TrEMBL record:
Keyword Ribonucleoprotein: no
UniProt keywords, alphabetically: Cytoplasm, DNA damage, DNA recombination, DNA repair, DNA-binding, Hydrolase
Function: The RuvA-RuvB-RuvC complex processes Holliday junction (HJ) DNA during genetic recombination and DNA repair, while the RuvA-RuvB complex plays an important role in the rescue of blocked DNA replication forks via replication fork reversal (RFR). RuvA specifically binds to HJ cruciform DNA, conferring on it an open structure. The RuvB hexamer acts as an ATP-dependent pump, pulling dsDNA into and through the RuvAB complex. HJ branch migration allows RuvC to scan DNA until it finds its consensus sequence, where it cleaves and resolves the cruciform DNA.
This protein's domain notes: Has three domains with a flexible linker between the domains II and III and assumes an 'L' shape. Domain III is highly mobile and contacts RuvB.
Primary localization: cytoplasm
Organism: Nocardioides astragali
One Pfam entry name: HHH_5
Name of the protein in its database record: Holliday junction branch migration complex subunit RuvA
């Protein structure tokens, strides 16, 4: 198995990146969130998961090990292949996936393209005891500065209301200047909703 790939980014497409490793261009299928962090000509190291089928050999690349772990666990549920698993980690952060499964949040899972009501219920039923609790600050593990608590609360509130993780992140950034020293989470959430409804 290929556990990770390190090399220069040779190309970035809509759904994949090519990393040059020892003179070989290796194509990794990646989510938009992962692709957004890559720059052609720069070095990158991505944890990977290799999916072998009779007619294909596909390597998926991830932002971090936590995302890779969730990608691999959700595939153990019947009816979930690599494409749906990738859609799950594209739409939801790893801890959001864990919360949705632990909290039996069918609605959150059905926001993922390719997952219907029955599919979401099956994922919850089969993975509830295996997915594990949210690991919390998995971002700290990859060297990102810890975010202010209000940011997480507003972000989770927006995702809970049906906005995508990416849209929620943009809205949080938009209202950040209003936070001040003692942020009012409710007011910031309403402000974030206003920016999203205008968008």
């Amino acid at each position: 198995m290929i556990a990770f790939v390190r090399g220069e980014v040779a190309a970035v497409t809509l759904n994949s990146a090519v990393l040059e490793v020892g003179g070989v261009g290796l194509e990794l299928m990646c989510t938009p969130g992962t692709l957004a962090t890559l720059r052609v000509g720069h070095q990158a190291m991505l944890p990977t998961s290799m999916v072998v089928r009779e007619d294909s050999l596909t390597v998926f690349g991830f932002l971090d090990d936590d995302e890779k772990q969730v990608f691999e666990i959700v595939q153990t549920a019947s009816g979930v292949g690599p494409k749906v698993a990738q859609a799950i980690v594209a739409v939801m952060k790893p801890d959001d996936v864990r919360r949705a499964i632990a909290g039996e949040d069918v609605k959150a899972l059905t926001r993922v393209p390719g997952i219907g009501q029955k599919g979401a219920q099956r994922i919850i039923l089969e993975l509830k005891d295996r997915i594990g609790p949210p690991v919390g600050a998995h971002q700290a593990a990859v060297g990102a500065p810890p975010s202010a608590p209000w940011r997480d609360q507003v972000h989770q509130g927006l995702v809970g209301l049906g906005w995508s993780a990416k849209e929620s992140e943009k809205a949080v950034e938009a209202v950040a200047p209003e936070a001040g020293d003692s942020p009012d989470v409710g007011a910031l959430l309403r402000a974030a909703l206003r920016t999203l409804s205008r968008a």
